Amino acid sequence: MNMQIGQLIRGLMGETQAGEPKSLELKVGQVVKGMVLQLLSESDALVNINGVHVRAKLEAPLQQGQVTLMQVQPNSVGGQVVLKPMTSGDAPIPEATLTEVLKNVGLKDQPASRELLKLMQQFGVPLTRGNAQQLQAVVAQMPQGANSAEWTEAAIVAMKRNLPVTAGTVRALAQVIHGAPFHQELDKLSTQLREALQPSRAAELPPAAREAAGKLLALLGGVADGARSVVAGGRG
User: What tens digit of pLDDT does each residue of 222-233 get?
Assistant: First the structure.
């Protein structure tokens, strides 16, 4: 379904310029890049799409001046344009739409780029050119042997939480999100200390080192017990 809305826009804006008016053809399902020029009500806004000012109903709130991708909705009838900002994870991006979105954000149409866009939309990260290219850049810095899906998710979480989207931040977040639980890491370190304090090996250590290792082992045991209690409480 197409909507020729050029004359409607002129009427809404009260334009009186001479010459051929700009027209805009929108199709249901089409993804467009728009900037919110003015908020007219809780759901109505004046949006600039390709240089044309469109009065549209927004299915999700946006801020004045915000630039984002929007999808034309099926209920855009009778001259009423309904746009859904593509910043919410409520529903996945249709496969048929991905190619157009990739073009809008300046990414190549390849599997990795498609998965990146899907994760951005799932986590509610605005599908803008700047966001997509910043994430693509840090994904390219993924260390050899790292899990691609975990690294990409950590990068998106960093952006979502307004953290620096750098390789160092992403590496730390990936460990927190997907690494072994803290108490398991403590148990592993405790085991290594116990092995070092076995009589057959402890004799090789200076007395001061044996004493320090013993104190550290006792401290780790208490911290690990506390961590296990927190985990158990969180599951209850």
Answer: 665 654 554 444
